């Protein structure tokens, strides 16, 4: 027992030196130097997980570059090239996932209606990188709601693996499973929205789910996959963010910061939520591919830390280089906003433990919140691009009333 | 270990002297709950969706996480020292320097019992005098239970620890007493001179700097002026073969020297509204002390792995103030609890006096212990609070005449502003 402990400890050091992701902290972790000087973002348990499990190296084949970031070269020796179908793939998650898969040597086909261009050059992507990707990725144009077409098109297509990034209802998945009876793995983008609201948090994968939730379609899909006996893996993200986000999460804050407007936050602002960077999610999707440990498993995938609503406003300001924002708290019950959303996040505590993915898959988020929001700002909003024009009418309702009450 | 032992335990802690045979220690079975179910026996996550009743939801949770099955505790429990020697396992001699009051007092009590269960030898050195009035309160009033299972108990001043123990050897020394260097230094220095292999320190999660990004995890910034920090820094400088620090939050458990859940029960059983400062959304960590104790035992048994580490000695679930109130009500057999939220500032109330927990998010997670010690959290508030309520009633506290002056003031002033929320 003692010898094994010693061995784990030593191998841990070896890993630490090889990885050296957060240079300061890795050393501190093992020599126990002053924790007081470590910043939150560089804490090992904050986002960087040092694996002492020897088996990680066999299944995941992460390549370590000395003194650099862990890069997933995902050498073909780890997972042989697969013929992969991505349902979706042209808007957000799939944009990053498809690139990882192509780089890893897989043949990737995107199934979309073609509303968005099949491929687009990303901000920060070199022409060569883009050319390498766009020249290899394939496309099937179609509407997945046309179940007959879907089934026909996919039968005898020979796809080994399906990444279902945009599926909402179980009925959408059936034709795909029917068409591909020998599928090796069905990897599904579910949602942490399936968890039953609880006073005891964080949500673990074993927690109760809510069959009445807005995301019950996701739950039904997970159940379908189970009953169909297929080899499936489901990832449950919380709030996804990053460049090209079409859900106005960080964008909502950036618009107001740019306009120099106060940030209206419902109630106390103490509500705790969790954001996960899209690139970390894409990496998680890659890491479950061909991974036996992931068979028939659900994984929460998000950031290593949670954040309060007020904290998120501040983090967005910090990331985008704006001064600390003026926050105005209000009671939503005192207003009738009609159908308009007054705040981009659900007004409750909502966060999950990502421990299972870290332990099982050796995955860990690389972006902490400010770093991730900075990435999003620099590659998207900060360049003048965003998905939705701002609508400050709700803000004005809140601010006007608040001013009236104060005067 | 059979599956039966991995099932949730719902056993009241019997406040009676234990028999000499430590194999019957109530803690023995608790440790077995750390055994995780292998993958093949994982309950389907979708079983949960069939249940609507709160109790069913929580019953799934009480099954340890069905992933990463690690045989963390292969060694059979509760061996005698001789038996351990016979199989080549080292029985450690552990000294616990224990505070004589406060929320941390019972850590030493539980830790001593768990160490005996695990086949180690324990001495508990309590600060102060055996005859003092403080010793009439739990857990001290129950130290006969410790002696009955072979724990040595003694009293004195930490500064005189050298005189009391001279050069008696201990493999590990736990300081569960000092909040500052003045209190801990004599103990640490003496432990160094006797050549103790390992030094463990009970610090506090209260030293973390408040953050907008909970939870507090090991490595996060601490308040530079916190006295525990000076202690941790000093211990680090002493270069024990193994040293580590544990940062607990709030604890429940039998033998507690400080009120925790009792504050809620007091109000609930008397059908009084529970005044909660702020929104009630504040999140905190309430661990059963057995989780803290088991973490300490693992550190003693894995000194090399534990060395140089900070461990948040908490359970792996947080709860909101409102949520805790509701759970206490349920544990007390009530369907609802009447909660009154109030703003301490505008009412001129000192929330520290009016409420047992810090009025803010105070939330740490035990990530290091899980990662480094293969420790597992077993706290299950819905069940644990039921046990706590049973003991609360058994002690007769529900019948006690208690004055709620501050509560009454708060409720009176708040009722002018808002209706009490029935949850």
UniProtKB/TrEMBL annotation, chain A:
Residues annotated as domain NAD-dependent epimerase/dehydratase: 84-301
Q: Give the record's GO CC terms.
A: cytosol
Top-level taxonomic group: Eukaryota
Q: Which InterPro entries match?
A: Epimerase_deHydtase, NAD(P)-bd_dom_sf
Matching Pfam families: Epimerase
The GO terms describing molecular function are: UDP-glucose 4-epimerase activity
Which CDD domains does the record associate with it?
Answer: SDR_a1
Q: Name one GO biological process term.
A: monosaccharide metabolic process
What is this protein identified as?
NAD-dependent epimerase/dehydratase domain-containing protein
From TrEMBL, chain B:
What the entry lists under Gene3D superfamilies is as follows: NAD(P)-binding Rossmann-like Domain (3.40.50.720)
One Pfam family from the UniProt entry?
Epimerase
For this record, the Gene Ontology CC terms, alphabetical, are:
cytosol
All copies of the NAD-dependent epimerase/dehydratase domain together span 102-312
**What are this entry's molecular-function GO terms?**
UDP-glucose 4-epimerase activity
User: What biological-process terms (Gene Ontology) are attached?
Assistant: monosaccharide metabolic process
Question: What is the recorded name of this protein?
Answer: NAD-dependent epimerase/dehydratase domain-containing protein
**Which species is this UniProt entry from?**
Picea sitchensis (Sitka spruce)
Per the UniProt record, the lineage of the source organism begins with:
Eukaryota, Viridiplantae, Streptophyta, Embryophyta, Tracheophyta
